[in-house]
Sequence to fold (515 residues):
Amino acid sequence: MQHQDKVIIIDFGSQVTQLIARRIREAGVYSEIHPCTSDPAAIKALNPSALVFSGGPSSVHDEGAPPLPKAYLEWGLPILGICYGMQVLAHTLDGEVTRSQDREYGPAEFSTLGDCPLFDGVERKDRLKVWMSHGDHVGRLPSGFVRMGRTEKLENAAMFDAARKIYAVQFHPEVAHTDQGGRIIANFLFKIAGLKPGWTMASFVESSVKRMAEQVGDGKVVLGLSGGIDSTVAAVLLNRAIGKRLYCIFVDNGLLRMHEREEVIGFLQEHFDLNVKCVDARREFLDKLKGVDDPEQKRKIIGYTFIEVFDREAKAIEGVGFLGQGTLYPDVIESVSFKGPSAVIKSHHNVGGLPEHMNLKLVEPLRELFKDEVRKVAAELGMPENIIWRHPFPGPGLAIRVIGEITDERLEILRQADMIVQQELRASDWYRKVWQGFAVLLPLKTVGVMGDDRTYEHVIALRIVDSIDAMTADWSRLPPEILARMSSRIINEVKGVNRVVFDISSKPPSTIEWE
Ligand code: XMP
Fold:
């Protein structure tokens, strides 16, 4: 897609490189991440307006440490180096990087020296709280550079060459622990590089619709709609681009929440006039799941059955040439990113995807966006809050929340209990504050008393967690009154349940889902 100003981040493997892109985009400038192993000619072809060199786990002195291609320094573009990005700049020019035995990790106090546009308007410049994470440091500046800041431990904590517009800092302005980091990045973009903010979600919608219309031409696109924000936004954008030549398929696998099917489809048809086919495949899924209690087995069965159903439905549409998908930018980066030795190992659910024999070309309207940007696009497209802020819902749905064997009766109990959890979270305003909240049906019965009678019935567990990215999570500290209301409503209103427990485990070592 053509963007007015574009900042290319060369990734040297830092775990926080994505944050640099997000900060730049928040400032209103489009930004992309490319691995340090990219061919500089390919980067040049992207027509960048400025470059950022990210941090990374290596030492420039290590064998196999990623080098900085000299070409990047020859195009006359404004450059910002961060952490390893600063060291590799010094090392590649004629400066010197000093090895260090121990790493400095954590907060530091940074003082600016003299005037430098990177720190224009930054408050408390003489004792700025910054975040450090490095081993080596720049011992001698390259010629032409001047120092622009120091910390107690580091003589050369920042440097610049105004004539060449090359700036570098040892600390990480992109992380929240650095005070006024956004301001520092904005200064680089606007005061130093002279860029113009042009990246807005309105401009994204306009250019993405245009691009998809060009890509698809007069072809047809099929897209699996899950009810989640990503596939919904992808569908609405595609619908704008090609109208009724977008065929959405919503598969009811019998494992959805109460009223989910009607809510999702009804809403999309009513407000966006989407072409949605709802496939009732409930029996097909539930029959295959009969007698299965192993979670991974459940996932596998649901995964391949989905592909079978989707494939069958897609084939029934004559002349489909494209598959629409809600792939997001973090998945795109993940698949090409430069992995330093300390890279996180992320586990992916549901990657699998659709079979190659379908022979469809991909259309991915969201592949440039971060999740928070998808939400902004949803707002731009006029979607209501309850869609924009919907909690993540796993592909296998309620199957992994009915612990043990899945039966119609047990699914119905869970559905009713879960509906109460959703209602109470929404009514109390806690829905937006928590990452996910749901009910789990346990594979055991316990004794209770109702009136004068002894009961022997099911147990529901409440799983409500706070999280940033689902990689780690902690149980939400909900006010006890809300928990009390959920519990008494579930026990009173859901036939077959006489006990409710609240899960107080964090992830790790537990997981968010119970299966
Ligand atoms: P866990 O249970 O691994 O969950 O802590 C992390 C996040 O992933 C979701 N999840 C899944 N999503 N298919 C999915 O699409 C799955 O099989 C699956 N298992 C877990 C979970 O809801 C949470 O948001």
The first strand starts at residue 6 and ends at 11. The chain is about 30% helix and 25% strand.
